[in-house]
Amino acid sequence: LFRHVLEAVQHCASCGVLHRDIKPGNILVDLATGQAKLIDFACGTYLQDTGYTQYAGTPSYSPLEWTHFGWYYSKPATICSLGIL
């Protein structure tokens, strides 16, 4: 199941998209196949090389850099959200 979530996140990144709200409520699971889908891109944005200074996702899944410094980078933030998940 988690592998499917990782594949979805990787697909988003390959399309230049940062989800920014990875949490259990944004993952749908097809019970017949076990396939997971990442949904709700309302908080998403385009990937950028520079840091982000705005966060639109669920606070309890926010990256630690955002909580402590008010900025974050896409890859570490995504890894942090996946770790919390």
From TrEMBL:
Pfam families: Pkinase
Documented EC number(s): 2.7.11.1
InterPro entries assigned to the protein according to its UniProt record, in alphabetical order: Kinase-like_dom_sf, PIM_Ser/Thr_kinase, Prot_kinase_dom, Ser/Thr_kinase_AS
Catalytic activity reported: L-threonyl-[protein] + ATP = O-phospho-L-threonyl-[protein] + ADP + H(+); L-seryl-[protein] + ATP = O-phospho-L-seryl-[protein] + ADP + H(+)
Molecular function in Gene Ontology: ATP binding; protein serine/threonine kinase activity
Gene3D superfamilies: Transferase(Phosphotransferase) domain 1
GO biological process, one term: regulation of mitotic cell cycle
GO cellular component labels: cytoplasm
Domain (Protein kinase) ranges: 1-85
Keywords: ATP-binding, Kinase, Nucleotide-binding, Serine/threonine-protein kinase, Transferase
Similarity comment: family membership: Belongs to the protein kinase superfamily. CAMK Ser/Thr protein kinase family. PIM subfamily.
PANTHER family found in the cross-reference section: AURORA KINASE-RELATED, SERINE/THREONINE-PROTEIN KINASE PIM
Protein name: non-specific serine/threonine protein kinase
Native source species: Helopsaltes ochotensis
Gene (name only): Pim3_6
